[in-house]
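Q: How would the structure tokens look for this protein?
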Amino acid sequence: MLDLYDYPIVVEIPVAWGEMDYFHHVNNTVYFRYFESARVKYVEAIKIEEYMAKTGMGPILGSTSAKFLAPLKYPDTISVGIKSVKLDSGRIVQEYGVWSHETSRLVAKGESTMVFFDYKKGRPCDIPEGLRENILKLEPYLADTTKAKETA
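A: Here is the predicted structure in token form.
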């Protein structure tokens, strides 16, 4: 079972009344904004903006998905956790968990892939080494998966 302590970045977000749909629960599209809020905090934590300014290289969202486990309604507050589960030379696969404070349960899970992109050249690129170091400081367990891949 996923736990908030499994995530290095967790954000709290109040559920807005306007996020509910005709069926009186939060609309499925809103969860992608919740994921985005956690992803923004993640990229701030690893200082991506510094590297983008210096190198012109940074992330672009390659894919995202969600699995809805229970309805979420207003009023509520949620905690959204994000962690990386795979670090390759040019991409990071990340996982999300969304917890309702009102029901004390996991209401959604998600996944996304950030692909690193050289915006000057207009093509995918490797993650800059200094940025990779920042990622590994935040999530040291990823070093084991990276080393295993390099030796394979």
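The chain has one domain: 4-151.

The longest helix spans residues 30-45.

Upvote if useful.
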